[in-house]
């Protein structure tokens, strides 16, 4: 994933924003703080990148905007899985 070559600060910013957007989409924002949003966004980026690679999408050439949307996609999937496990 191209995001792996991004700096740590870019991962934190993109992960935090993506985790926050995903938590808004899934309605879990009240349960999550800043740190959890960042962690969900980063883990979601890894998950989203892995899933898109399975479908043959060139994630490495996408840039930061594509990385953001990849993180949001993965974060929404991750939060859905976590919510299913919790309930």
TrEMBL record:
Membrane-spanning segments: 6-22, 34-52, 64-82
InterPro entries, alphabetized: Transgly_assoc
Gene Ontology CC annotations of this record: plasma membrane
Originating organism: Corynebacterium oculi
Keyword annotations from UniProtKB, A to Z: Cell membrane, Membrane, Transmembrane, Transmembrane helix
Protein's cellular compartments: Cell membrane
Listed name of the protein: Transglycosylase associated protein
This protein's record includes keyword Nuclease: no
């Amino acid at each position: 994933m191209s995001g792996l070559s991004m700096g740590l600060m870019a991962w934190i910013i993109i992960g935090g924003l993506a985790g926050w957007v995903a938590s808004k989409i899934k309605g879990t924002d009240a349960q999550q703080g800043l740190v959890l949003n960042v962690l969900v966004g980063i883990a979601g980026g890894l998950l989203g990148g892995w899933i898109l690679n399975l479908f043959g999408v060139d994630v490495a050439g996408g840039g930061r905007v594509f990385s953001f949307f990849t993180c949001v996609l993965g974060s929404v999937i991750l939060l859905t899985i976590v919510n299913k496990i919790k309930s």
